[in-house]
Amino acid sequence: MTSHATLSARKAPKQRKITRILAAVLTGVIIFGLGVNVGNGQIALNRTHSVSGDLPDNLDYASVEAIYDKLRTEYDGKLDQNTLMDGLKQGLAQATGDPFTEFFNAKDAKAFDEELNGSFTGIGAELGKNTDNNIEIIAPIAGFPAEKAGLKSKDVIAEIGDESAANLSVSDAVKKIRGEAGTKVKLTVIRNKTESLDFEITRAVINIPSVKEEITADNIGILTISRFGPDTASLARAAAEKFKAANVKGVVLDLRGDPGGLLDAAESVSSLWLDSSQTVLLEKRDDVVVKTFRAEGNPVLKGVKTVVLIDGGSASASEITAGALRDNNAATLIGVKTYGKGSVQQLLRLNDGGMLKVTSAHWFTPSGKGINKIGIEPDQKVERTDEDFKNNRDPQKDTALVFLKK
């Protein structure tokens, strides 16, 4: 982010009937969560059969044409052909019942790409859907308006502005929340299924590198990854080389609040600790392993004592990296249980500039453990409370530093 916009936040508990909201009611991005594997050759599934192989090669659109004819002749209002076509495509994707399978028209596909690359206008929060089909915060991005306002992972978005968020798709929610920098958006969220809170957040230009690094006075390297994007592999390796040159005593890999991103970035980060004989993840389709992903080699941090910090906002590619390092005995996990996104998405580009994000498989840790809707438990559980955030305390990082100094 090039500059911080002025932020005003108002939090006030409200007495509401929240049970109905929770029953009715996404990264924003959300690839491999951010949850995505981009369909550009990064993933090659060795499919011996199709899960939906019993479907016909083509659909019978006679009934669709019948609805179109009725709308065209009977609807009292203005209809747009392109909007209707987009609605058909969105409906096909939504009919899968999978919240991570989505159609994007050309405009929305461009916005999606911008977010993956770390440059967009909004509040700086990744969205997802929980098991109740509610829109929720996967992770507020550190240092940006959503986090500063006090939004937290797992907060359920009940209203955007004064409109209900029930039945919105992730992309629709993102559209409503985004807007010009300097303008404000009001969100009503339900926290812990009991507390209703109002937030008024000033939108800003969100432009962030995915990696930050520092070396403490005690010669501990801290590598913080906010998402797994196109710049992550090169930035993380450059940081690791600095750590190696400084002969650091240990490394903290901070994946808290990281909603995921590209598979190859997770492979590259894991490969800083793992050699080419070690497994990063297993990919399954219809419960059959279709591919084993291994490290790339040249592990500059291999053997360096390492802690991975995780929390409820660590999702998808973050969970891949954490699981790979722990299963290969390369790191200790400290924090709280991760989000639990174990599905794989491909981004398929369409000729009209649109895009289909489709769940194509599920991934498992090197030991064969599935984490979808389960998450990864830390080796050492350390909470970070609201009071800790308010007073700028970080017991999770403090615990990691103490562990590395032993």
Commentary on this structure:
By secondary structure, the chain is α/β, with parallel strands linked by helices. It has a domain at 208-341 and 363-405: Alpha-Beta Complex (2-enoyl-CoA Hydratase, Chain A, domain 1). It has helices at residues 18-24, 62-74, 81-94, 106-116, 145-149, 170-177, 232-245, 263-270, 317-327, 386-390, 395-405, and strands at 37-38, 102-104, 119-122, 125-129, 135-140, 156-160, 163-164, 184-191, 195-202, 204-207, 211-215, 220-225, 250-254, 279-285, 288-294, 306-310, 332-335, 343-349, 355-364, 380-381. The model is unreliable at 1-49 (pLDDT under 50).
What key attributes describe this structure?
406 residues, globular, 26% strand, 11 helices, 6-stranded mixed sheet, 20 strands, 2-enoyl-CoA Hydratase, Chain A, domain 1
Oligomer: single chain
End-to-end span in angstroms?
A: 37 Å
Radius of gyration: 22 Å
Low-pLDDT runs of 5+ residues are 1-49
CATH first level of the domain at 208-341 and 363-405: which class?
Answer: Alpha Beta
Which SSEs are present, and which pair or pack?
Blueprint: H1 18-24, E1 37-38, H2 62-74, H3 81-94, E2 102-104, H4 106-116, E3 119-122, E4 125-129, E5 135-140, H5 145-149, E6 156-160, E7 163-164, H6 170-177, E8 184-191, E9 195-202, E10 204-207, E11 211-215, E12 220-225, H7 232-245, E13 250-254, H8 263-270, E14 279-285, E15 288-294, E16 306-310, H9 317-327, E17 332-335, E18 343-349, E19 355-364, E20 380-381, H10 386-390, H11 395-405
Parallel strand pairs: 1-18, 12-13, 13-16, 16-17, 17-20
Antiparallel strand pairs: 2-19, 3-10, 4-5, 6-7, 6-8, 8-9, 11-12, 14-15, 14-19, 18-19
